[in-house]
């Protein structure tokens, strides 16, 4: 920097200046605008001031976007959280979320779908979780943590109606993928076969397919809208989701009882939906088309109808409230997704 530029910069260092972001007056010696928080460029070399203004603009855009999105409700994220936890506790009070009791509450089993026509087992597993041997409710806790972290973003970006459709549709596609990949011959063919296919028919349950659907939605969202998103959202979503996806695929490859087909089915379902469905931009009217409300109602009705069938066929596996301390201490194991 030349001597003249140094003198100019030092001359402005002790004077009040105007914030280039919001127009407010910034006092002499103050490093940030007290109104909007943008850094003051008074006294900075020209190149540094230009860089500071660019950074401030990006941060301001990010915060404006975040404030607009965060102010929206995430009602059904917490409805689904409570529903999953409630059903897990009911199973524990019925004797433990495992084995025959897991089946009674609606876990997927190909045999019962094929020979008994129990169609609801494509839907109900989305809301069920397995008590793992020695790990208790870890399956439930891991999936509910994922829903708590990702669900509000998807619901606030797309709205509650679309979120419900994303969750149920991705979950059902994940269960269908699990159903189709019970292929003993293919499971024994190679390590890739063992990753995708299952060597035997066993009870399967879990919200992971629906959760991976949310990952797929955010992955496509970040790429599809990369030109209009602020920098912070570009880094978090889109290609920023790749490490999360790869880590989960690696976990699925190394742990044999994880239902990888359900995960991949849910992910691709969510990604495909996000390709064709738009999100609600900041400042956009909150009106939702009747079509999406109808799909939301149909999705919830499907879930209610599924668990209505569970109630009809539950037999002797109803909850026991007489001694909850004893029943909650029981352990069990079953394949999870």
Summarize the structure.
This protein is mainly alpha-helical and 337 residues long.
Write the element-wise H/E pattern from the N-terminal end onward: HEEHHHHHHHHHHHHHH
| Number of extended strands | 2
Based on CA atoms alone, the radius of gyration comes out at 26 Å
Count of helical stretches? 15
Overall helicity: 55-70%
Overall CATH architecture of the largest domain: Up-down Bundle
Q: Helix- and strand-based class?
A: mainly alpha
CATH topology of the largest domain: Rhomboid-like fold
Mean pLDDT across the residues is 82
The strands making up the biggest β-sheet line up spatially as 1-2
* Proportion of residues in extended strands: under 5%
Largest beta-sheet details: 2 strands, antiparallel
Termini distance? 61 Å
- At the fourth CATH level, what is the homologous superfamily of the largest domain? Rhomboid-like
How many domains? The number is: 2
Low-confidence stretches: 1-14, 330-335
Classified by CATH, the class of the largest domain is Mainly Alpha
- State the shape: globular
């Amino acid at each position: 920097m030349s001597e003249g530029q140094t003198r100019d910069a030092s001359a402005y260092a002790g004077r009040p200046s105007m914030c280039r972001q919001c127009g407010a007056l910034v006092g002499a010696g103050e490093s940030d605008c007290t109104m909007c928080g943008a850094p003051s460029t008074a006294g900075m070399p020209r190149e540094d001031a230009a860089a500071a203004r660019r950074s401030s603009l990006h941060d301001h855009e990010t915060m404006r976007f975040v404030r607009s999105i965060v102010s929206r409700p995430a009602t059904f994220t917490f409805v689904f959280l409570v529903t999953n936890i409630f059903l897990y506790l009911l199973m524990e009070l019925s004797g433990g979320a495992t084995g025959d009791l897991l089946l009674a509450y609606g876990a997927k089993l190909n045999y019962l779908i094929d020979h008994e026509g129990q169609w609801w087992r494509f839907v109900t597993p989305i809301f069920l979780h397995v008590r793992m041997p020695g790990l208790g409710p870890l399956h439930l806790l891991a999936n509910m943590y994922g829903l708590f972290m990702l669900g509000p973003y998807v619901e606030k970006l797309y709205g509650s109606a679309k979120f419900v459709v994303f969750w149920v549709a991705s979950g059902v596609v994940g269960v269908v993928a699990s159903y189709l990949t019970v292929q003993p011959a293919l499971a024994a063919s190679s390590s890739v076969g063992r990753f995708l296919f299952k060597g035997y028919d066993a009870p399967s349950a879990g919200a992971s397919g629906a959760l991976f659907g949310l990952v797929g939605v955010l992955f496509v969202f970040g790429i599809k809208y990369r030109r209009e998103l602020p920098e912070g959202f570009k880094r978090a979503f889109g290609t920023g989701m790749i490490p999360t996806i790869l880590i989960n695929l690696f976990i699925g490859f190394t742990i044999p009882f994880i239902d990888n087909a359900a995960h991949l089915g849910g992910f691709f379902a969510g990604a495909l939906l996000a390709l064709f469905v738009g999100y609600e931009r900041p400042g956009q009217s909150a009106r939702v088309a009747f079509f999406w409300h109808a799909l939301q109602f149909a999705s919830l009705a499907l879930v209610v109808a599924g668990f209505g069938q569970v109630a009809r066929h539950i037999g002797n596996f109803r909850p026991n409230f007489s001694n909850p301390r004893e029943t909650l201490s029981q352990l069990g194991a079953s394949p999870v997704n």
